[in-house]
Amino acid sequence: MESASDDRHEFIDGEVYVFRMMSGGKLSHARIITNLLISLGRKLDGGKCSLFSSDMMVKTASGMFVYPDVSVVCGDPVIEQRRGMEMITNPTLLVEVMSKTSESMDRGKKWRAYQTIPTLRDYLLIRQTTPVIERFTRESNGEWSKASTVIYGLDQMVELPSIECVLALSDVYEKVSFEQDAEQEGD
User: Fold this and answer.
1) Which CATH number is correct for 8-185, 3.40.720.10, 3.20.20.70, 3.90.1570.10, 3.40.50.300?
2) Which of 14, 44, 51, 130 is most buried, by the most CB atoms less than 10 A from its CB?
3) How much is the pLDDT for 100?
4) pTM of the model
5) Residue 109, CA distances (Å) to 14, 56, 79, 106 in order
6) Spatial distance between the Cα atoms of 66 and 154, rounded to a whole number of angstroms
7) DSSP letter, residue 144
8) Rounded to whole angstroms, how far apart are CA atoms 42 and 29?
9) 65-100 pLDDT, tens per residue?
10) The dihedral of CA 23, 53, 114, 77: what is its sign?
11) What is the pLDDT of residues 151-177, one digit of tens each?
12) Are the beta carbons of 114 and 94 closer than 8 angstroms?
């Protein structure tokens, strides 16, 4: 179904969610993802990690199939094929840029499923309407930290030791207009 469709589908907890390819998104969402891909791409260039956009599906150990906004795999990507579709099964970092409508899914069902991926070390949730990134980290003992680290402000940095880089929030949010997005959020 997925390979023959114009829509993207995520399979989460036994339910299929349809994401219309042509519906479009907010300018801030697109800019943040583009900025992430550029910034991470520069930092990871020539290293052991590979960067993937939301075009690459990820399969969790719990059997969920999703399209994170950004994925990073360190080492060789492990790919599972199913009916002509390729899915990464060993991400090191996953990123979701949250919208008003996606936040509960990104914090809920997706986050619970992402925790089942043994190779995952960091999960970032990025807000669109204010410069805030929330980082969830797997500790060296394999357990996830009890609390997330929340980074506020354009002058701050997010440390990502799992992929050996640091992201500046000013780079992630370059050209994002918070006033315009705050007005649209009320619509």
Assistant:
1) 3.90.1570.10
2) 51
3) 87
4) 0.85
5) 11, 19, 23, 7
6) 29
7) B
8) 20
9) 899 999 999 999 999 998 788 999 999 999 999 988
10) positive
11) 999 999 999 999 999 999 999 999 999
12) yes
